Recover the amino acids of this structure.
């Protein structure tokens, strides 16, 4: 099992939502950015009747990511409304089913499984929940959720495409009547009973509805995890591979980070030395076609998947530049190394103020930070700003290792779970401690492992925290590859607490100096960042300017 706190999506690209890889949509699936015009999803009306009507209209369009966002916002106004809660749960199921059936690795794995092996997979998932999940599973609720997900799957076009069947209203009624007489979710109290209930339901679905037993059992399997909490999820083979690519800090792809923008995929970052950088792609370019397919607002997530492919294979893309000119690029997919540290520079050489941005917590983070620290030390570093804005997290061990570089003793973070093996206090060690004054930049997108580090620095009064309150994700996820198939699980196994015992969940880390960012700071080129006047980078970035002033004050006090 690998323990982690969220990650950036990879395999050569990522579609960034507000907190990509952290705000995973509420059913444990990643909700991509809106792919509709701003007027399509408006702020929900305050009356419940108007909200339900607007929600129905969105459901009819089948844009489940937008539906989920709509109901999540509506529930903020009506937190106790059972109808809204139920509709949100159904929307998440729709989204999860469509997401899996767009994933060819899931489709291939499904075709490979026999009904018996699909049942073994479901049982393996239940056993993992029984052993590792942070709360005791409600087996009756898991079976009930599986039954409902099979019903919803029959409504999903992609599911029906892969399982063509003509079902009459009478057949559906007969299925539910027989199911009610033979499966009672309320009586399910242990794994063996859940297994038997799913097996019975799968064969009834095959008899009455014409879908294969393994297709129904896979819905039970996905449903068992997707409704547990915001971060637990069933991982298809490709998704599991993506997770480990992010942990390792490398992937096969073009070396770009993307976000949805109208009918195109906007490049928001080009990884230096990657295939895209060598081909001449730059930040701000818009991918408008991949192969012979033009990108559209309704299919950007699927379009981005077309950028995937085997190592050394080629992909042709059409890029629209800022002036409207379109150019065609033919680029080789290659393995790309993604450093977790970038923009390493002396922000104010005269005062010895150093700076670097930490973009993720991965296997290479400790070594990447060590290289950055010694480079800055040789350049006269007397104080350091660590920028964690937008960092959604990563490995627990990477967060602990980073904090240990600046704390000489004491607790870094504590984890607590249902199982005693999840209860652990991670401690700092004196050897190798850097004692320079610290300033840590955070924002609402700094989460999980970022909050581990910022919380430890704050509680030990080791530095000044600047920016906005962090996201507030206080749980630990474990990654579990499954033996029956090449898929996996992401399960919440514990909650974490700062050194003072504060729960991070929903509270986050509060900065000492609050600076609200109203616009994205300008991104300067490496050449500009390395120039003697590089401290002017802060002129376009109020939070960084405040951090620089705090660092200068700390150096002066020292």
């Amino acid at each position: 099992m690998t323990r982690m706190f969220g990650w950036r999506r990879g395999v050569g690209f990522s579609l960034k939502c507000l907190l990509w890889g952290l705000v995973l949509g509420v059913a444990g699936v990643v909700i991509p950015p809106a792919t509709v015009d701003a007027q399509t999803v408006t702020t929900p009306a305050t009356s419940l009747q108007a909200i339900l009507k607007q929600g129905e209209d969105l459901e009819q369009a089948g844009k489940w990511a937008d539906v989920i966002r709509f109901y999540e916002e509506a529930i903020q106004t009506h937190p106790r409304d059972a109808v809204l809660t139920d509709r949100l749960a159904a929307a998440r199921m729709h989204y999860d089913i469509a997401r899996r059936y767009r994933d060819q690795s899931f489709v291939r794995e499904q075709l490979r499984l026999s009904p018996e092996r699909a049942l073994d997979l479901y049982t393996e998932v239940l056993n993992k929940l029984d052993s590792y999940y942070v709360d005791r599973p409600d087996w009756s609720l898991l079976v009930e959720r599986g039954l409902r997900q099979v019903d919803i799957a029959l409504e999903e076009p992609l599911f029906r495409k892969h399982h063509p069947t003509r079902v009459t209203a009478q057949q559906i009624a007969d299925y539910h009547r027989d199911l009610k007489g033979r499966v009672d979710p309320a009586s399910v109290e242990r794994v063996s009973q859940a297994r038997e209930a799913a097996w019975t339901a799968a064969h009834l679905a095959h008899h009455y509805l014409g879908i294969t037993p393994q297709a129904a059992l896979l819905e039970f399997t996905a449903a068992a995890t997707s409704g547990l909490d915001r971060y637990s999820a069933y991982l298809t083979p490709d998704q599991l591979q993506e997770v480990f690519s992010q942990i390792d800090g490398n992937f096969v792809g073009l070396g770009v980070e993307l976000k949805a923008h109208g009918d195109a995929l906007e490049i928001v970052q080009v990884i230096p030395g990657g295939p895209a950088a060598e081909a001449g792609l730059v930040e701000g370019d818009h991918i408008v076609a991949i192969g012979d397919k033009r990108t559209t607002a309704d299919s950007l997530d699927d379009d981005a998947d077309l950028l995937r492919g085997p190592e050394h294979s080629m992909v042709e893309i059409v890029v629209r530049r800022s002036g409207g000119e379109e150019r065609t690029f033919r680029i080789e997919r290659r393995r790309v190394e993604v450093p977790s540290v970038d923009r390493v520079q002396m922000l104010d050489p005269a005062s010895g103020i150093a700076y670097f941005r930490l973009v993720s917590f991965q296997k290479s983070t400790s070594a990447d930070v060590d290289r950055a620290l010694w480079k800055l030390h040789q350049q006269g570093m007397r104080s350091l700003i660590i920028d964690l804005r937008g960092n959604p997290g990563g490995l627990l061990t990477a967060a602990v290792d980073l904090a240990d570089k600046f704390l000489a003793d004491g607790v870094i973070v504590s984890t607590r779970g249902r199982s005693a093996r999840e209860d652990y206090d991670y401690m700092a060690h004196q050897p190798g401690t850097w004692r320079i004054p610290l300033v840590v930049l955070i924002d609402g997108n700094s989460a999980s492992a970022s909050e581990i580090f910022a919380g430890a620095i704050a509680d030990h009064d080791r530095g000044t925290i600047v920016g906005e309150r962090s996201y507030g994700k206080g749980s630990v996820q474990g990654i579990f590859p499954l033996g029956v198939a090449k898929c996996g699980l992401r399960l919440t196994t514990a909650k974490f607490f700062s050194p003072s015992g504060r729960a991070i969940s929903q509270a986050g880390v509060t900065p000492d100096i609050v600076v609200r960012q109203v616009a994205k700071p300008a991104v300067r080129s490496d050449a500009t960042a390395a120039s003697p006047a590089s401290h002017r980078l802060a002129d376009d970035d109020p939070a960084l300017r405040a951090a620089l002033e705090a660092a200068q004050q700390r150096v002066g006090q020292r």
Q: What stands out?
A: The chain has 18 helices and 20 strands. Confidence is low (pLDDT under 50) at residues 2-44, 521-535. The radius of gyration is 25 Å. The first strand starts at residue 2 and ends at 4.
